[in-house]
From TrEMBL:
Oxidoreductase listed as a keyword: yes
Family: Belongs to the non-flavoprotein flavin reductase family.
Pfam families the record matches: Flavin_Reduct
Occurrences of domain Flavin reductase like (ranges): 10-152
Keywords: Oxidoreductase
PANTHER family for the chain: FLAVIN REDUCTASE (PTHR30466), FLAVIN-DEPENDENT MONOOXYGENASE, REDUCTASE SUBUNIT HSAB (PTHR30466:SF11)
Protein name (Swiss-Prot/TrEMBL): NADH-FMN oxidoreductase RutF, flavin reductase (DIM6/NTAB) family
Classification via SMART domains: Flavin_Reduct (SM00903)
Molecular function terms, GO-annotated: FMN binding; riboflavin reductase (NADPH) activity
Length: 167
């Protein structure tokens, strides 16, 4: 396989940018920028997310079996970069961001336009990112979008010409 062609073609897949959060209730709070996300079913509503297997976020999510997927708005590029690094819990904030606990106990970022809370139904353990399937059990709309909901979301391409994932 031509490695350059593979990388270029896989980078043609559009990616939204989200912050996955989880809290095991024992002091392990995780938050990470993720982008391998899609909805896979309407009834019940299911989402899938790819999470790096050697991350604390993966371990906390797998342990607690719940997570929140916080949507980022077009104007929240700095948050995407904030959560590229391991989360820091201090002064009642996650990496400097205010949050509240959702019904599952997962952190909901106060400044995110919206979030869904999920309970983990399946973990597919293949590759360097495992697939977590989550059933949506609650939705939070903190700021209604002005137009199409999908147009309000931060995308990988919005982060700059040199920021890619995939390939």
């Amino acid at each position: 396989m031509n490695a350059d062609a593979k990388k270029t073609v896989l980078r043609m897949i559009p990616y939204g940018i989200y912050v996955l959060t989880a809290d095991d209730g024992q002091g392990n709070v995780a938050a990470a920028t993720v982008n391998w996300v899609t909805q896979t079913a309407f009834a019940p509503p299911l989402v899938v997310v790819g999470v790096k297997t050697d991350s604390g976020t993966y371990q906390t999510t797998k342990t607690t079996k719940t997570f929140a997927l916080n949507m980022l708005g077009k104007d929240q590029k700095s948050l995407a970069f904030t959560f590229f690094r391991p989360a820091d819990l201090s002064d009642g904030k996650i990496s400097g961001q205010s949050y509240r606990k959702g019904v599952t106990g997962a952190p909901i970022l106060v400044d995110a336009p919206g979030a869904v809370e999920c309970k983990v139904t399946t973990v597919i353990e293949q590759g360097d990112h495992h697939i977590i399937v989550g059933e949506v059990v609650e939705a939070h709309l903190n700021k209604a979008p002005a137009g199409r909901p999908d147009a309000a979301i931060l995308e990988m391409k919005d982060l700059g010409d040199n920021v890619f994932y995939g390939g």
